[in-house]
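Researcher: Sequence recovery benchmark, item below. Answer with residues only.
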């Protein structure tokens, strides 16, 4: 389930389609996301431009012909002037290596490669990972399985999603307000479509704080709880702790077994990717699942996993958690994961992997890399930490205009390349913006590359928000594409 409201988890540029394409619930589920994309492809006759079952193996830039030479499966080489990658921010699976995994007799599944029609009903199920995905899985399956053992490393500040059916009145309101909705998306921090709070936690009385938290808990959504309650939850320690305390109290109120509640309560700063529960069709929340006698929580900080055995998972206290199925909700080798798996060589044979080895994954404006001319990354490192479709649209618009300008003034074979200085300045800006946020204090997660052993620990996003990110792109264009080298012929950059 996407935790962005359905109406802003879509393309903004086809108004007729915005008005007519249906969505049943406040949040779209995977089959609906796929159906929507297929619909857009059909509607705009895009399939003829697509080539399926074709894996990109390598891409090499050559200065001689100013072209990318892209090798794909079947030993075919495609030559192109520009290479635009859409490799996905969260798509290379993180499958942690746990001793004994290959000895497990049951079924092993990663949530990112869920087998169609596989049922967990009546089985003894283990879930490793309680992030966005784990929380959704646990909320959904608790009532169907024989036992559910949740292996949790970090407890989470999860709030209800507030998912519900879209009523005709709600849909009519959306259709009457598309312009305002997308204006708000583009001029906000999160681009989630809700009204972000302009009030400081410090300007509210204790009663008002409680009222606002309660109201937003009822409305649901993690991003709304973080950015729709008060404007300083993500930046001010005291405001943040106010939100944490509210959620911890909720956990105490909901979870009847005090031992389970203790394990489920986070005490660190609320500054990881904000979570919300799934859409349990019986209306139950994530924390309510733990009132079921068949749902157990294992705190991996107290009792880490020692190994996987034929019959299940053995933790350090000697307990064997017997399982038929082990689900890995362990996330992704995020952001650069797919880039470093492919051999992308820029100028002088430099690979993207090597270019990022010391600095960690970086870019100019989340889109371009010095040394890699005419390569444009959709959702590259240091793109906006926001609802993704609007961030992708902003990048598509920027890349399209930049290429159009190059084609206009750059002669037969324009070369568009960011400067190292621009990339460095942009990285410093990203770090400054993140350092103003409490996210900087909670670096032990995928946003900083800390979820995978051996990954460079560093910032992977632009934290200035959607409006500022769009402004940054617009300023670059208005300044004659500042930060790009002058084109070989004509001038795009300055
Ligand atoms: P996340 O958010 O990276 O969550 C992965 C979870 O798996 C998280 O709870 C991790 O614990 C846990 N994890 C990862 N490796 C291990 C090991 N080795 N042992 C135990 N637990 C582990 O991935 P999601 O798929 O939930 O969500 C990714 C994004 O997709 C999400 O942010 C949305 O933007 C959409 P941790 O909390 O790090 O201690």
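Model:
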């Amino acid at each position: 389930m996407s935790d962005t409201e359905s109406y802003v988890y879509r393309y903004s540029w086809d108004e007729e389609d915005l008005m007519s394409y249906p969505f049943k619930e406040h949040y779209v589920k995977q089959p609906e996301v796929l159906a929507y994309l297929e619909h857009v492809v059909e509607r705009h006759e895009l399939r003829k431009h697509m080539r399926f079952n074709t894996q990109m193996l390598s891409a090499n830039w050559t200065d001689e012909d100013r072209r990318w030479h892209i090798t794909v499966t079947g030993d075919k080489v495609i030559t192109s002037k520009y290479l635009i990658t859409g490799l996905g921010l969260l798509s290379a699976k993180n499958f942690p290596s746990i001793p004994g995994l290959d000895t497990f007799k049951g079924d092993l599944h990663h949530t990112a490669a869920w087998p169609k029609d596989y049922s967990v009903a009546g089985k003894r199920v283990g879930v490793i990972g309680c992030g966005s995905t784990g929380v959704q899985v646990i909320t959904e399956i608790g009532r169907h399985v024989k036992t559910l053992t949740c292996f949790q490393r970090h407890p989470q500040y999860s709030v209800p999603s507030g998912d519900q059916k879209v009523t005709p009145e709600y849909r009519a309101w959306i259709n009457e307000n598309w312009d305002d909705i997308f204006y708000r998306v583009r001029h906000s921090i999160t681009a989630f479509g809700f009204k972000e709070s302009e009030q400081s936690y410090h300007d509210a009385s204790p009663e008002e704080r409680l009222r606002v938290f309660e109201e937003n808990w009822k409305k649901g959504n993690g991003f709304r709880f973080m950015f729709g309650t008060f404007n300083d939850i993500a930046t001010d320690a005291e405001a943040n702790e106010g939100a944490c305390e509210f959620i911890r109290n909720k956990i105490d109120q909901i979870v009847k077994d005090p031992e389970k509640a203790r394990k489920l309560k986070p005490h660190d700063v609320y500054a990881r990717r904000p979570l919300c529960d799934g859409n349990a069709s019986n209306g139950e929340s994530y924390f309510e699942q733990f009132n079921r006698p068949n749902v157990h929580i294992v705190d991996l900080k107290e009792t880490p996993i020692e190994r996987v055995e034929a019959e299940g998972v053995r933790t350090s206290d000697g307990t064997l958690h017997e399982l038929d199925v082990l689900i890995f909700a362990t996330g992704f080798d995020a952001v650069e994961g797919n880039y470093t798996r492919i051999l992308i060589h820029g100028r002088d044979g430099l690979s993207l992997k090597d270019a990022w080895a010391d600095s960690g994954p970086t870019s100019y404006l989340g889109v371009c890399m010095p040394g890699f001319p005419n390569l444009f990354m959709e959702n590259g490192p240091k793109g906006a930490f926001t609802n993704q479709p609007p961030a992708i649209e902003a990048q598509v618009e920027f890349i399209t205009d930049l290429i159009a300008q190059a084609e206009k003034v750059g002669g037969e074979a324009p070369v568009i390349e960011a400067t190292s200085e621009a990339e460095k300045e942009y990285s410093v800006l990203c770090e400054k913006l993140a350092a103003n946020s409490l996210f900087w204090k909670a670096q032990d997660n995928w946003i900083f590359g800390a979820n995978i052993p051996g990954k460079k620990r560093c910032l992977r996003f632009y934290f200035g928000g959607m409006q500022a990110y769009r402004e940054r792109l617009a300023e670059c264009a208005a300044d004659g594409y500042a930060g790009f080298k002058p084109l070989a012929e004509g001038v795009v950059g300055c």
